[in-house]
Amino acid sequence: MDMSEEVLQQASPGLIPGSGTARAAKATRLSPSFISWLQAGPMMLVFLAFFLIPLVFVVIVSFWDYNEYQLLPAFSGRGYTDTFEGCVAQLPDLCTIGKTYVKTLKLCFMVWAITLFIGFWVAYFLAFHVKSKTWQMGLSLLCTIPFWTSNVIRMIAWIPLLGRNGLVNSGLIKTGLINHPLEWLLFSEFSVVLALVHLFTFFMVVPIFNSMVRIDKSLIEAAYDAGASGFQTLVNVIIPLAKPGIVIGSIFVITIVMGDFITIGVMGGQQIAAAGKIIETRVNALQFPAAAANAVILLAITFLIITMMSRIVDIKKEL
Amino acid sequence: MKEGRPRSFYVLAIFFAAYVLFLYGPMIAIYVLSFQGPQGGLTFPMNGVSTFWIAKLFQGTGIVDLGAAFRRSLLLGVIVMIATVVLSVAAGMAFRRKFKAQSILFYSAIASLIVPSIITSLGISLEFRIIDDLVKAHWNENFETSMGLLTSGLGAHLTWTLPFGLLIMFAIFNRFDPRLEEAARDLGATPWQTFRHVVLPIILPSVIGIGLFGFTLSWDELARSSQAIGAVNTLPLDLQGLTTTVTNPDIYALGTVISAVSFAVITLALGTIHMLNKRQAAKGSDAGKGLV
């Protein structure tokens, strides 16, 4: 926060000559730190009750025991051992959980790479090529509106296009390119990646656009005057300065895809295993400690990726 | 810089147009298909044009009570919207000066945004299960559950909407001129008067933006609702349930109706923001208009 704002906030009205009314004096009785608590407290309480304590419960319950129909609050590693069942015996082959995570990471990487590519160029176009502020606002809004519509609707929207008798298949058959409808278009890894890109490129565009509009245009002019080609300007000036946005966007996309189970469920025809899906399956079977154990593993891996990413960026910065 | 548009402009303009088409194309397809004739199926070509499937929604499809889910989602959305606006504005004001636990609150908000939704949702459901077990063991054996739309469900939605609200508040106060408050204080306004008559009217357009985010994020929320909502379903949950058994265009009709509500809210909010901005530009300052 800005320092001058703080100073202004703390200058109490009672100190200003001529305004020492009874009401102003009454207002000074509340100390600034008390007012801060009053203002920020409710939000803090919501996060405490519905985010921080639940996370603690996830970790605790992951070490509890369970039977077919209830939680047993006694220490047990069963949630974890059930998850990694047969993993050591099967080495060097991957066990189910290992394969699931490899698949999740693969999906995650593909979606990340595609959303980054699309998001970068869309943001670049909006930030550098659209000169008028009104147009910039209007076109950004155009990209934002679909984000405000239910994800499930945006998923099922692909059915009439990609289905067996969908527009793509019937179009391809009519033009004689194929004889039989392509089966891999829908309820496949392809459709999962397509839907995820469709849903979440927005999370890449916004932060990258935000860091790009802050780039001082004279820096680009300077690069141009110093004889840099368009490509050199892009690599040496724009990308390094847009990096915070790129990292924030990447973190959003990666954490969403790592935990996703709805898109993968609906677009994969409930056939593709993924990290988030394991948790859902365990919950549906009322195996809460196992679900919690998987949540802890997923959380650990997600944070590992985020930490690694922020490291990579910092290392590059220092070089 | 060169005058005129470089070639890259045209390449990227086409790329951008393709992206927008990719964004809207499939959605437009289902909006059109929800007006299939009574004999129509899930794909093109259209088999007649009618409002048959939309009308069928409101008669009740038999599988789920969509009317009740609609009212529940609406109720939850409105409460989430109000709570998001009030809590975000208050916390945003608090962040303008240093206070203890400031960084805890900030990192909680960021973490809440990036921890996968299924984990938050599972955590809330575990928390309420443990509360239920405690109540059953110590106070009332016949107690059913404390989970519900306006307890665990409301909390789950707020963990998703509040971070957005807080970040928007940061953006607002980055552009806010604190000299306006100083002037109000110099004129003898109390802190509440300063907020009510100076700060609030200036930030009001963006505050409506926070409300818009709060409502639509809750209205469309799925991942966090999935485990934490209790026995009842919201509209998106019903819609997700329908995707596994879908054979008729009524699912598209439902999608169209949900989108229509979202778009109506967005339009209403943007219209209000526009009107407020205009009003502010016209009446906000009397500079240059003479004193009498």
TrEMBL record, chain A:
GO terms for cellular component: plasma membrane. The keyword Secreted does not apply. Residues 101-309 form the ABC transmembrane type-1 domain. GO terms for biological process: transmembrane transport. The chain crosses the membrane at residues 43-64, 109-127, 139-161, 184-209, 288-309. It is found in: Cell membrane. It is a multi-pass membrane protein. Keywords: Cell membrane, Membrane, Transmembrane, Transmembrane helix, Transport. Belongs to the binding-protein-dependent transport system permease family. CysTW subfamily. This is ABC transporter permease. It comes from Bradyrhizobium zhanjiangense.
Automatic annotation (TrEMBL), chain B:
Its main location: membrane. It comes from the Bacteria. The chain crosses the membrane at residues 9-33, 74-95, 104-126, 146-173, 194-215, 251-273. Residues 70-269 form the ABC transmembrane type-1 domain. It is found in: Cell membrane. This is ABC transporter permease. Gene3D superfamilies: MetI-like. InterPro entries: Bact_Polyamine_Transport, MetI-like, MetI-like_sf. GO terms for cellular component: plasma membrane. GO terms for biological process: transmembrane transport. Belongs to the binding-protein-dependent transport system permease family. CysTW subfamily.
